[in-house]
Amino acid sequence: MEEFIYFFSFKDPNIVLVVAGISLLSISAAMVGTFTFLDKKALVGDAISHAVLPGVCMAFMFAGNKNPYWIVLGAFTTGAISTYCISYISTTTKLKEDTVIAAVLSIFFGVGILLLTQLQQTGNAALSGLDHFLFGNAIAIVWEDLIVYGFIASFVIIILLVFYKEFKLIIFNAHFAESVGMPVRILRFVFNSLLVLAVVTGIQAIGVVLMAALLITPAAAARFWTNKLHVMLLLAVTFALFSGVAGAYISYVIPKMPTGPWVVMVISFLAFISFFFAKKKGMVSRWYSQRKYQKKIHMDHILKTLFLHWEKKQQGMTQGELINQFQGKASTTRQYINHLINKDHLSATEHYITLTPSGFTEAKRIVRLHRLWEVYLSKYLNLAPDHVHDMAEKMEHLLTPDLEAQLEASLDYPATDPHQSTIPRDHDV
Amino acid sequence: MIVKVTKPVLEIHDLTVSYGKNPILWNIDFSLPHGVLAGIIGPNGAGKSSLIKAIMGLLDVNSGYVRIFDSEMNAVRKKISYVPQRESVDWDFPASALDIVMMGTYHKLGLFKRPGKKEKELAIKCLEKVNMSNFQDRQISELSGGQQQRVFIARALAQEADIYFMDEPFAGVDISTENTIVELLKKMTKDGKTVIVVHHDIHSASRYFNWIIMLNLHLVASGPTDKVLTEELLQKTFGGKLALLSDVGDLIKQKGFDPLKN
Amino acid sequence: MTFDHNAFLIIITGALIAISCGLLGTFLILRRMAMIGDAISHAVLPGIVLAFLFSQQREGIAVIIGAGVLGIIATLIIDYLSTKIKLQHDASIGVTFTWLFAIGIILITLFAGQIDLDQDCVLYGEIAYIPIDLWILPNGTIMGPRVLYVALINVILVIFFIMYLFKELKITSFDAEFASSIGISTGIINLSLMGMVSYTTVSSFEAVGAILVLALLVVPPATAYLLTSNLKRMILYTLIIGVFTSLIGYYVAYYINGSIAGAMAGVSGIFLLFAIIYSNFAKRIIIFSKA
């Protein structure tokens, strides 16, 4: 706990440095990542992040130390070459894009590893920390790093905001963008450069191997909460920011822990939470609304059963009779009957369960929808009367008042269904 | 107008299918007699391809069933041939025309067995039937659209099936290929095969088919060509979708699940 | 140029691994599943570490099973995310493998004291140490390099797999719908291919590392794909390229004094470059001169 307070009180200037750095890079990565995600190019980011490794090593060979200017230059160069290779190879050869991405990724990374191991063999003392570029070490960020990486990240963020409208249009509909005279090729080039830059900012803190996650995962998580691009960007940035700082904190508390994997763990956790629990699109909420719908179906059936019984015999049913209509579902039926009584749709007297006036209206509506759909099927879909029941059984729970009105109008308010049963309406006596 | 058939080879009972969550076929119910050359026609997005995919068991159905030769699909699969849309595969695949046609013999071989001389001879014969014998060793990406389609038809012939389902075999092919294929299909039905073709051109439909199935999310008509190819039914088929069915589709899309699935 | 016993052993092992990977990779790229190969090669890591922790040995069957299971789980998670959760396919891959790989790295760091695995080994393997890692029978007989046997068994199983399921793999790769229409289960064929990819990844892991397996899975088949349009010839070329990748990769690494696996990936890239030049330029020139 003490560590926690110390870390987040930001008394230590080094911690401020680290948090500032990781925050900026998380924001820029999440923003760029959101666009690449929507452009269905998420894995290109993975290829680029692996492809910066040979550039990093070459810069080190050239400069002889971890000078961030050289590192950035080297990383940007090979990263940019890799994006160019991917688009060149997949447009000019018959190789498919996924194959090209995988090939470019592994070849560049292989060369990077070759150079890295060569460097390690030379035993250069300044080399220590070069392998931090693999899995990242946010704690090792120094003032000079922050200036370089922070500047790049801010640059990426600003350019993205300036060209927000243009990038949005290109991703949504490139052909349209071209037709209204947008310089699509130049904008794509700018965007690809931003993508490489966003990756470059992450190599020190997150590492090349896992940088892809910071591009892809925040956007994937955010997508489940919204359909609006600006909200999605905001959410992705928030998720990335949180996981970036959390990852930095963990590797501060446990110094031997590399930062990258922890950032990825936190962001993946947020993503899985989103996949399962997001409102509307999440797995659990979809499952919940499906259950709710099944419950509604069952209660609709209880009302309908009572109505049909009343239609035939003009009287209520005993609880036993009613429950017997739902074989194997006695306990849920009992529970729903009580629920309907509470909703004032049913009333229970000593012997009978009967529909209250509001229950009666509701039951009528269900039966009416059923019979109207049967008429619809036989009139518009030419189905024989013995074929219409099953579908109507599903539609009676689904149709909204709007659709009911449409249905009535297009059928011209029929009096009976194809089985000659009367279609009940509210003004009936 | 839906003409009922006694002793059908294919019987479709109240089939309802969703694609994703979007209901694309509503209560399809018809049967086909033996030996017809049937065309499935309807506008774009009418569910023509989905219908034959659902029959083949490639799409999940919400309700209803399909019976072929009065049995389940899986029990008679060896007697059925399916020709997917030409665009559905990658023609850069490293294979020759003959390789593709040989695939038509795989279902009889079973697991682990490889095609041998007998299968090769059959495949060559099938390529001859579609006038493609000169191209048997040609790489498939070097064939024209019409030639690729002929290869697909030859593969179907190699299956030596009794019922053929073909998805848009005339899409993007030249006139001579179209004529070759039509002649071939007519000959096949004369030999007692039943052929069902998804087709997009109403004008040629009356010349090609002796049975027509009209589809537009729901079944508009099914019957002998001279009986069903009327102005009224064509208007019903191509005159736009039923507003209610589309609206219900939109309603379902907003839900997180498909309420029409059982 | 040196060609001693050790060099020979390393090159042979590298070639065997390249053959296994190339055979499976051919079908991966034809099915447009190259990035699934990437995902599996990352995702096996936590399986290896966990199995290692439980069985306390690196050589055991447990590691192969643990990693194989993780590889299959990864493909199932990807499939679940994209079909059930409805996350787009490329993002499903990206989210899944980075997550699993991160777990693996964290486990390695946590249990660094208890397991003889480190981050470097994960990335690029230790093929150079193959000659000194010997398989010794309980009675003291020295059978030779252990990893060579591992690679040999792997290659035999992969060859059997490809031979026996050749027609199923071919038809499901070309036309999955047609395959299902004649009753071949694309899902099962797919899963068994993924299983073999996972197994091969683990088996090659010690030698070339998790990530560079991907180079061997994808690059030689991609090269061969550009050179021929006949499946059997494509496989043949893949194998030849794989063997030469191992041979040349060894000497490149020897002269640069760097990782052999890294050099192999680089060499495979040179082959691919040549194939791209050939297919984009030379072919046209040949056609042009003929005309």
UniProtKB/TrEMBL annotation, chain A:
Domain of life: Bacteria
Pfam families (UniProt xref): ABC-3 (PF00950), Fe_dep_repr_C (PF02742)
Subcellular locations according to the entry: Cell membrane
Membrane spanning stretches: 15-38, 43-63, 69-89, 101-119, 139-163, 194-217, 229-254, 260-278
Gene3D superfamilies from the UniProt entry: ABC transporter involved in vitamin B12 uptake, BtuC, Winged helix-like DNA-binding domain superfamily/Winged helix DNA-binding domain
Keyword terms: Cell membrane, Membrane, Transmembrane, Transmembrane helix, Transport
CDD domains: TM_ABC_iron-siderophores_like
A GO molecular function held by the record: DNA-binding transcription factor activity
Domain Iron dependent repressor metal binding and dimerisation, first and last residues per copy: 356-425
A single Gene Ontology CC term: ATP-binding cassette (ABC) transporter complex
One Gene Ontology term from the biological process aspect of the record: cellular response to iron ion
UniProt keyword Membrane present: yes
Record membrane topology: Multi-pass membrane protein
Family designation: Belongs to the ABC-3 integral membrane protein family.
Protein name: Zinc ABC transporter permease
Biological source species: Anditalea andensis
TrEMBL record, chain B:
Gene Ontology molecular-function annotations: ATP binding; ATP hydrolysis activity
Domain ABC transporter: 10-242
Pfam families hit by this protein: ABC_tran (PF00005)
The family this protein is said to belong to: Belongs to the ABC transporter superfamily.
Keywords in alphabetical order: ATP-binding, Nucleotide-binding, Transport
Gene3D superfamilies, sorted: P-loop containing nucleotide triphosphate hydrolases
InterPro entries: AAA+_ATPase, ABC_transporter-like_ATP-bd, ABC_transporter-like_CS, Metal_Ion_Import_ABC, P-loop_NTPase
Organism: Anditalea andensis
Record-linked SUPFAM superfamilies: P-loop containing nucleoside triphosphate hydrolases
UniProt protein name: Manganese ABC transporter ATP-binding protein
CDD domains cross-referenced by the UniProt entry: ABC_Metallic_Cations (cd03235)
Keyword hit for Metal-binding: no
From TrEMBL, chain C:
Membrane topology: Multi-pass membrane protein
UniProt keyword Transmembrane, yes or no: yes
Origin superkingdom: Bacteria
GO biological process, one term: transmembrane transport
Pfam families in alphabetical order: ABC-3
GO CC annotations, alphabetized: ATP-binding cassette (ABC) transporter complex
Gene3D superfamilies reported for this sequence: ABC transporter involved in vitamin B12 uptake, BtuC
Subcellular compartments: Cell membrane
Main location: membrane
Keyword terms of this UniProt record: Cell membrane, Membrane, Transmembrane, Transmembrane helix, Transport
Transmembrane intervals: 6-29, 36-54, 60-81, 93-115, 147-166, 178-201, 207-227, 234-254, 260-281
Family according to the record: Belongs to the ABC-3 integral membrane protein family.
Protein name: Iron ABC transporter
UniProt organism field: Anditalea andensis
